[in-house]
Write a structure and sequence with these properties.
The complex is a heterodimer of chains A (143) and B (397). Chain A is of the alpha+beta class and 143 residues long. Chain A has helices at 6-13, 61-74, 79-83, 87-93, 102-122, and strands at 26-32, 37-46, 49-58. Chain A has five helices and three strands, in the order H-E-E-E-H-H-H-H. Chain A is globular. In chain A, 47% of the residues are buried. With 397 residues, chain B is α/β, with parallel strands linked by helices. Chain B folds into two domains: 7-14 and 260-396, Aspartate Aminotransferase, domain 1 (Alpha-Beta Complex), CATH 3.90.1150; 19-256, 3-Layer(aba) Sandwich (Aspartate Aminotransferase, domain 2). In chain B, strands 2-8-7-6-5-3-4 form a seven-stranded mixed β-sheet, sandwiched between helices. The longest helix of chain B is centred in the middle third of the chain and has 39 residues, at 243-281. Classes of the chains: A alpha+beta (143), B alpha/beta (397).
Chain lengths: 143, 397
């Protein structure tokens, strides 16, 4: 396997924003333990701004690092801005990911979208979030 | 950090070359560089060295020198055995029996044979990884040409009932190959006691160099060469011999033959200390493999609610080298087929660590691991949504 970038190792060894937010405004859980990663992302929203984000993740080094990075990226952003954060942006902010680990950044994006979707639903608003049908990832890549 | 402790617990991946092995090898890179196929003195010298190594390798497993064929790797030995035996004896029939926990270097060649008209029975094991000899007996048909079941599993260390299985294959007149790559050099391996027709071993698994391995083929058993075009290895495996590596394999075999009882006596208590220490400090941890019929240096554990690669990376930062059985470290994102075979829950299989000890490990090393791993597991669990859910569920009860 390709090696992790130093940025990935930094976020893995000392991840930012680990934990849960009590009475969070939005919570999203994606992934599947069978595939090796589950992410749960919590957001706190005030005046359409994400004022806090925390996560809990079961997964490999890349899964933890992307969780840490996506929570960093989303903090201080408006809801609309948060919706535009892509998996590529998360991977890029980490100085790239090994090819076999790109699915972890996809999962991070989906965890964020799922938390935003939960926020809109809790507010009784219609959700502009497009959730992918399968919140897991492609796990049939052959041997 | 100069005071950082380095603890290598990945001997199932590879071992360091023993200093005496290296010493024996060195002259064959320089002064004695000859090609064993040449008749001049320089060639004879190399030839003699290869034949001496052949005798020593044979002696380690109770085989005659002329029953040993050198190859470049354990994977090559397994490919050679499975394809070579099946193809050379297919006039008898085209049915093969293997277990589901064989190494991929047996499973993949068998799959290739399936495409060319062979049929294959993949035997399950029990939860400790043991093949039931009765299943072998029941699966043998008139068409069965080969049974290949490993001596010990490389991941969970379970030692299979090879002697019982060979009584069945002998009675039914079926060839029997065993992959002893994981076990040779660590426990006694004797081809006559085991009763096998072919056996694979690999030097770098027991303090020899990478690049030299062997296949034992019982005298009189037909095998089809897989590498053709030369006269080497009695025409059964062409290619100029890797003389230094073969000399190293011979030396490693000689050392192992003398040291196996000591190795077992040293490693079993050390491994048991590690197992006990971790069990005392980590809850929701499962030991994989057979409690007694297991390689002396093997400890394979699965932790609930944490993922293997994360543990591996944190251990690596602390100077401890292990392997993980997690889906995330494999290209396929599938967890180990061995753990699937023994019925390990797919989620917990991802929290698997394989720790394999060696003669360089001390009690202090083991105590350092017992001290270092539990806080890593705890830290990752505190980060794990699965652990959070479990705790909430427990509280809810």
């Amino acid at each position: 396997m390709e090696q992790y970038s130093s940025k990935v190792m930094e976020h893995f060894a000392q991840p930012h924003n680990v934990g849960e937010i009590e009475n969070a405004d939005g919570v999203g859980t994606v992934g599947n333990p069978v595939c090796g990663d589950v992410m749960r992302l919590y957001i706190k929203v005030e005046n359409n701004i994400i004022v806090d984000a925390k996560f809990k993740t079961f997964g490999c080094g890349a899964a933890i690092a992307t969780s840490s990075m996506v929570t960093d990226l989303v903090k201080g952003k408006s809801l609309d801005e948060a919706l535009t954060i892509s998996n590529a942006a998360v991977a890029e902010a980490l100085g790239g990911l090994p090819k076999v680990k790109m699915h972890c950044s996809v999962l991070a994006e989906e965890a964020l979208k799922s938390a935003l979707d939960d926020y809109y639903k809790k507010q009784g608003k219609s959700s502009p979030v497009k959730l992918s049908a399968d919140t897991g990832h492609d796990h049939d890549m052959g041997e | 950090m100069s005071d950082k402790r380095n603890v290598y617990l990945d001997h199932a991946a590879t071992t360091p070359v023993h200093p005496k092995v290296l010493e024996a090898m060195l002259p064959y890179f320089t002064a004695m560089f000859g090609n064993p196929s040449n008749l001049h003195d320089i060639g004879r010298e190399a030839k003699n060295a290869v034949e001496e190594a052949r005798a020593k390798t044979g002696a380690l497993i109770g085989a005659r020198a002329d029953e040993i064929y050198f190859t470049a790797s354990g994977a090559e030995s397994n490919n050679f055995a499975v394809k070579g035996l099946a193809q050379a004896n297919s006039q008898k029939g085209k049915h093969i029996i293997v277990s589901q926990l064989e190494h991929f270097s047996v499973l993949h060649p068998v799959k290739t044979l399936e495409k060319s008209g062979f049929s294959v029975t993949y035997l399950p094991t029990d939860k400790q990884g043991l093949v039931n000899p009765d299943d072998v007996a029941k699966s043998i048909t008139k068409e069965t040409v080969l049974v290949s079941i490993m001596h010990a599993n490389n991941e969970i260390g379970t030692i299979e009932p090879i002697e019982e299985i060979s009584r069945i294959t002998k009675e039914k007149g079926v060839l029997f190959h065993t992959d002893a790559v994981a076990s040779t050099g660590w426990v006694p391996v004797d081809v006559r006691t085991l009763g096998v027709d072919a056996l694979s071993l690999s030097g770098h698994q027991f303090y020899g160099p990478k690049g030299a391995a062997a296949l034992f083929v019982r005298k009189g058993v037909r095998i089809k060469p897989q590498i053709e075009g030369g006269v080497q290895e009695d025409g059964r495996r062409s290619g100029t011999e890797n003389v230094p590596a073969i000399v190293g394999l011979g030396k490693a075999a000689e050392l192992a033959a003398a040291e196996i009882p000591n190795r077992m006596a040293y490693l079993v208590p050390l491994r048991d200390r590690l197992q006990k220490g971790l069990l005392e400090k980590i809850d929701h941890m499962v030991i994989n493999g057979h409690p007694a019929k297991r390689l002396p240096h093997n400890l394979n554990v699965s932790m609930w609610y944490v993922e293997g690669e994360s543990m591996l990376l944190f251990l690596n930062m602390a100077g401890i080298s292990v392997s993980s059985g997690s889906a995330c470290t494999s290209r396929s994102l599938k967890s180990s087929h061995v753990l699937t075979c023994i019925g390990t829950d797919a989620a917990v299989a991802n929290g698997t660590l394989l720790m394999s000890l060696g003669m360089g490990n001390t009690q202090e090393d083991i105590d350092y691991v017992i001290e270092t791993l539990p806080p890593i597991v705890q830290r990752l669990r505190e980060m794990s949504p699965l652990y959070e859910d479990m705790i909430k569920k427990e509280k809810g009860k």
